[in-house]
Amino acid sequence: MAGSTFGTHFKITTWGESHGKGIGVIVDGCPAGLPLEQTDIQAFLNRRKPGQSRYSTQRKEADAVEILSGVFEGKTTGTPISLIVFNQDQNSRDYGDIASYYRPGHADYTFDMKYGFRDYRGGGRSSGRETIGRVAGGAIAAKILDHLGISFLTYTRSIGPISISKSPEELLAQNSLKASSSILSNPLYMPEEAACTEAQKFLETCMEHKDSAGGVIECIITGVPAGIGEPVFDKLDAALAKAIFSIGAVKGFEIGDGFAAAALLGSENNDNFEMKNNIPVLSTNHAGGILGGISNGMPIIFRTAIKPTPSIASIQNTVNKNGENIEISIHGRHDPVIVPRAVVVVESMAALTLLDLMMEHMGSQLNYLKQLYSHEQ
Ligand SMILES: Cc1cc2nc3c(=O)[nH]c(=O)nc-3n(C[C@H](O)[C@H](O)[C@H](O)COP(=O)(O)O)c2cc1C
Fold first, then answer.
1. What is the DSSP string of 271-318?
2. Helix/strand/coil for 116
C-alpha cells in the first residue's frame, strides 16, 4: 500500500488496522529539544476517543498511547518518534457479514477492486481508527507550533441543518480560553449551548430512525506569520486541502469565504490593505489568511464538510460477492455522527501541514541561511 506517509520535513507514517493488534505512527523530522510527555499526546487523543457520549461509537477504548522511541529525559532527541496505541475493544464478529457484501458509502467495494483482498474487520485501513496516528503526530506538531506562538481553535460549526450563529471573528473576539472551554464543555464540541441542544435533539431523531448525520468543522489558526507556503504546487491552501481531504468522510473544503466568494463582486471580496504600527495589514479577511498560496498574517480560517456516517442500521440495498442483490442492515458499533470526533483530526492535519511548510520556508531567503550558518556574528 502506497501513501501512508505525509509531509516532507516533518513527516508522519501511520500504520495499523482497526481490528489488528494496535495502531500507531512514526514521526520523523521532529527537532531535538522539544519537551514532550506522554500526556501531551494523550490529551489530543482523548478528544477523538470513542465511547465518550451517546453520539459516538460505543466501542470502549482507552486509546492509551505509549512512546517507544525518540524521547529521552522528557525531551525529543531528533530521532524518529514511534508511538503505539494497542486496540482493546475489538468485536470482529460484528463484521462477519461485511466480508461478503459491500457497504454503501464505505470503502469496501473500492478496496476489493484495488487489492483483491481486504481486512474487512472494522473497515481495516479505511477505518476512522487510522486517524489515531495522525492525531498523535499532530499533537507533537501543535506543541512545536505553540512554542512559535501559533494557536488553533477548532470546533463543530454545524450538525445536519443546525448551525452555530457566531462568526469565526466573533469567536476569536472572545477570550481564547473562554472560547476553547465552551468548545470542550459539550459532547459535540459546539461553541454555543442553544445550537448544541438543538443538534442533540436532531441526532436523537436520526438514531431513532437508525440513521446518521454529517456536519461542518471550522478551524481558525492564529499567530501564523506572513510568508508561509510556496507559490505553485505547495501552496498553503492547496496543501491544507490535500491534508484535510485525506481524512475519511471529508466531502468538502473551503477557505475564507470559500464557495460564497463566487457570488461576490471583486470590490466586496478583496481585502484592502492599511498601515498599522508601520506594517501593512488587511482590514477584512475574505481570503481566510492566504494569498497566492502564501500566508498573509491574518488568521487562517477554513471549513470542512463531513458526510453522514456510512454504516447505518436502516435497511439499504447492495450486492454481495456472489453478484446477488441483497438488503442489509448494518450492526456493530458506529458513530451516529463523525463530526465531533473528527474535530481534533482536522486540527492535527492542519498542524502537520503548517509546520511542514514552515520548515520549508526556513530556506527561502539567503538571510535566513546566513543567520543559521554564517560565522560572522
Ligand atoms: C474519526 C472518524 C470516525 C469514523 N467512524 C466511522 C464509523 O463509525 N462508521 C463508519 O461507517 N464510518 C466511519 N468513518 C468514515 C469512514 O472511515 C469513511 O467514510 C470510509 O472510509 C469511506 O471513505 P470516504 O467517506 O472518504 O469516501 C469515520 C471516519 C473518521 C475520520
1. --EEEETTEEEES--TT-SEETTEE-SSPEEEEEEEPPPS--SS-EEE
2. coil
Backbone φ, ψ for residue 361 (5° rounding): -65, -25
Residue with cell 476517543: 49
Sequence-separated (6 or more) residues with CB below 8 Å from residue 276? none
Nearest residue (by CA) to ligand 1, atom 24, is 249
Whether 358 and 228 have beta carbons less than 8 Å apart is answered as yes
Instruction: State residue 339's pLDDT score.
Output: 97
Q: Mutate which of 338, 339, 344 to test ligand 1's pocket (most atoms within 8 Å of Cβ)?
A: 338
CB 131 within 8 Å of CB 49? no
**Which of these, 6, 91, 85, 4, lies nearest to 45 by C-alpha position?**
85
Give the closest residue (by CA) to ligand 1 atom 4: 128
Question: What is the phi-psi region of residue 29: left when phi exceeds 0, alpha when psi lies from -120 to 50, beta otherwise?
Answer: left
Expressed in angstroms and rounded, the spacing between residue 128 Cα and the centre of ligand 1 is 5
Whole-model pTM: value is 0.96
What are the tens digits of pLDDT across the range 266-295?
999 999 999 999 999 999 999 999 999 999
- Quick one: average pLDDT of 353-361? 98
Average predicted confidence (pLDDT) for the chain = 93
